[in-house]
Amino acid sequence: MTTRARSATAPAARCRCAPFPVPIRCRFGAGSTGIPFTDTKRLNENCGIPFTEFRTHEPSSAFIYEMIVAFGGVKEFYGKYFLSAICPLGLTKEGKNKKPVNFNYYDTRELEQIAYPFILETLKKQIGFGIDTSVCYCLGTGKNEIFLRKLNKEHHFFEEIIALEHPRYIMQYKTRFKEQYIDRYVRVLGD
């Protein structure tokens, strides 16, 4: 999710903070680096932060960093946006072949209820960083957006929520339109 935020160093400056791009945490991106939509490849190559323990590639990360380049680069983007997640936990479950697969906070009603207090507390802390809550950009137009809108209706965190298609969806199902989606992200975030 991405939101506008006020910089801690310049309280009067208004920045758009990627309102916790309500992304879904995964094993190869944020699950590996702790930074939403950032796999180890992008951490090294785009952010200039050396990471040599292992190498991961996450399609969502590839999309986000192509968009960040189109936006003006890492410094420009992260100077204006705070990128986070509704549920900043990397959850997995055992898959059919006994290997871990991603498991989202909303995949079962029981898990959503268990995670809710943690999500609420985490979101309040992140907003406490000085984020301008006038706009939140939700990365995902499905269950993430539904959950965020419900949470916002109950707690009035953001004045407006603008949903953008999730990078994973784009990379998995709409790759041939990727440049159009990048243009849309840049246009919406640049306003």
Distance between the termini: 17 Å
Strand segment count: 8
How many individual domains? 1
User: Compute the gyration radius: what is it?
Assistant: 16 Å
Number of helices: 8
User: Which descriptor suits the 3D outline?
Assistant: globular
Query: Can you say what the CATH homologous superfamily is?
Result: Uracil-DNA glycosylase-like domain
Structural class: alpha+beta
Order of helices and strands, N to C? EEEHHHHEEEHEHEHH
| CATH architecture identity | 3-Layer(aba) Sandwich
Largest sheet, spatial ordering of strands: 4-1-7-8
Low-confidence stretches: 4-27
Rounded average pLDDT = 82
Helix content: 40-55%
- Predict the CATH topology: Uracil-DNA Glycosylase, subunit E
Give a short account of the largest sheet. 4 strands, mixed
CATH hierarchy class name = Alpha Beta
Beta-strand content: 5-15%
Short description:
This protein has 191 residues and is an alpha+beta fold.
Written overview of the protein:
- Strand 5 (92-94) and strand 6 (100-102) form a beta hairpin.
- The longest helix has 19 residues, at 109-127.
- The protein has one domain (2-190): Uracil-DNA glycosylase-like domain (Uracil-DNA Glycosylase, subunit E, 3-Layer(aba) Sandwich), CATH 3.40.470.
- It is of the alpha+beta class and 191 residues long.
- It is globular, with a radius of gyration of 16 Å.
- Residues 4-27 have low confidence and may be disordered.
- It has 8 helices and 8 strands.
- It has a 4-stranded mixed β-sheet, with helices on both faces. A two-stranded antiparallel ribbon has the order 2-3.
- The chain has helices spanning 30-33, 40-45, 59-71, 74-80, 109-127, 143-155, 167-173, 178-190, and strands at 2-3, 5-6, 14-15, 82-83, 92-94, 100-102, 135-139, 160-164.
